[in-house]
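Thought: the user wants the 3D structure for the chain below. I'll pass the sequence to the structure tool as-is, report back what it returns, then summarize two notable features.
Action: structure_tool
Action Input:
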Amino acid sequence: MTQLQHETSARRSPPRIGTLVLLTGLSALGLNLYLPSLPNMTLHFETEYRLMQLSISLYLAVNAMMQIVIGPIADKAGRRPVILWGLVLFLLATLACIYAPSAEAFLAARMCQAVVVVAMVLSRAAVRDMHDQDQAASMLGYVTMGMAVVPMIGPAIGGMLDENFGWHANFWMLFILGSFTLWLTYVDFGETALKSGKTLIEQFREYPELLTSPRFWGYSLASGLSSGAFFAYLGGAPFVATEIYGMSSSVMGVYFGAPAAGYFLGNFLSGRYSARFGVNRMVLWGCILNAAGVGLSLLLTLSGLASALTFFGFMTFVGLGNGMSIPNATAGALSVRPHLAGTASGLSGAIMLGGGAALSGMAGALLGPGSSEAPLLGLMLGTAVLAIGSIAVVIWRERQLALR
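Observation:
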């Protein structure tokens, strides 16, 4: 093998699963590590909780917008360089969050921090580059199962850091982990995709090929609506914990990780059974479990039997359902047009996070002085039921096509 051939082979060597887990985990940790600090950050910046809560919804909104362009850029330039540049920008934005002099400056830096979404989007695309649909769903299940450990313990760690060192410590932790992830990606993440050779204009012209596919929309909406219940939870649960149940930030951090425990199990089930049962059934079962957990929690709240334990305990079903539905729906969306895997990953992620930003903002707006958790649970249940409808349409359409 010549030197040139050796270098080309090295650049195309696939990343290890640990690198993929860390990339997706960093993206998840950037979203939820600091959530137990929101009440104290509100006091620090001398503002209202609703303004600080925008750090979630604005972050998700920028995530969504970025994913529209990340896919085409990565399909043209490759996964590796886009991830590396994204991580560098994430580190700079994290420093800006730490040294922000006002709530408005913090929110601006937080929006820039959303660039870390390239790690999640392109690690998923890399899995699809290397595997077919059902095997990709299985691999995504294992990758996100490992990722689920991070948000499971993230809020608990964030709460402890906040109580002992202040809210800045959460962002210093993100900076340290981001630096390690950048190094590991540089040494391990070889290119997994062949560059398309097309201009960005030509890449964007291929969006209609996805946008006119009913299957793509069905999978993307099933994923987006199923996860929408979780994003609404992110926007409202800190209020429920502190204002309704009087929890400290460290205690809230422990309870807050309940969905991640279910998510871990759901991703294990995806990794174990997706190839056997197929993506459609796994998505449907996941969406049903998601709705069942929220529905039972709402029923207890309306009957006056709810407690902190029941509210957060039933959120494990939300995580379980998401762990089964999201990897499988993502694999389905990415497999509609395999040659557009990067574009599909970005677009389906934009649909998911755009909806998540709206639902997170709605959750914050629904909760105020004297309110119970019922409005939040009602919002979550509505999105969970719509997710069931979305995957049901996909299944019905495939059966109709099979009869022809």
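Final Answer: Structure generated. Residues 1-11 have pLDDT under 50 and may be disordered. The chain is about 85% helix and 0% strand.
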